[in-house]
Structures are given as structure tokens and as C-alpha cells.
Design a protein that fits this description.
The chain is of the alpha/beta class. The chain has a domain at 60-143: Nucleotidyltransferase, domain 5, CATH 3.30.420.270. Helices cover 30% and strands 17% of the residues. The protein has helices at 18-34, 90-97, 116-128, 139-143, and strands spanning 64-69, 77-80, 83-85, 105-110, 133-137. It has a five-stranded mixed β-sheet. The chain is elongated and about 105 Å long. It starts with 17 loop residues before the first helix and ends with a helix. 7% of the residues are buried.
Amino acid sequence: MSMTTGGGGSYSSDINVTPMIDILLVLLIIFMVIVPVVPKGLDALVPQPPKDPAKQPPPNDRTIVIQILHVPGGPPQYKINETPVNHADLLPRLTDIYANRAERIMFIKGDDDLNFAYVADIIDIGRAANVDHIGLMTPKILAGQ
């Protein structure tokens, strides 16, 4: 058994990582300079509820609110802006209302004791009358919370 030490002209198969680390650090610095520090975005304003409930703006006369009133032991009653309407007349009335309007927004206000199937039916009628946006008015929304 013999061992040789030192001196031969053999090649080393180890990878020299120092140049690769230098290149990596230079690239990291370049990308840190290129990428902006402050992200760009759109400024958005969130609507705030009025501080004094007595000074609330008057209701818009172009707002359409369909009320569904619960009648114990019978079918619900429907109103379009406080005007009583039969269920069969809802689609023709809504189609006439939204025929010449650019903004097609409708709100639905239902009683607490009402089955949601009646509200879903009014949503379907609104979609059939080409209403684009349908909102639900809940007690929390009406209270301003």
C-alpha cells in the first residue's frame, strides 16, 4: 500500500462557485433597482354613510324598489315604489319601466318572515326584464350599518 502526496499535475473536478455568486449578486442588485419600491394602483374612494341620520339625502325618484310583503297563510303582496302590483303584472311593468332607461338598477326589499324563493323569483323576473344590477335591501343596510 502506497500513498502519494502532492505534486502531480492532475485536474480538480470541484466547481468554482465564486464567479457564479458574483454574477448572482450583480443581477440581484440590478433587479432591485429596476423594480419600483412603491406599488402603483388606482385611487379609490369608499362611500361613507352620513354622520347625521336626519340629514340623509332625499331618495332618488329614479330608484326602483320592489317590496315583497309577507301575508300569513297566503301568497305575498308585491309593490313597485309603494304601488301595489300583481305578480302576473310584474314582468310587463318592469319591462316598461326599464325600456328607456340607461341605468338598469333595481332593489328588492323583502320581509324577514318571507321565504327566499319569492325573492329569487323576483330576481328572475328582473333578469327577464333586462335589469343589469339587482340589489337586496337588508335591515342592516337600511339602518346604515
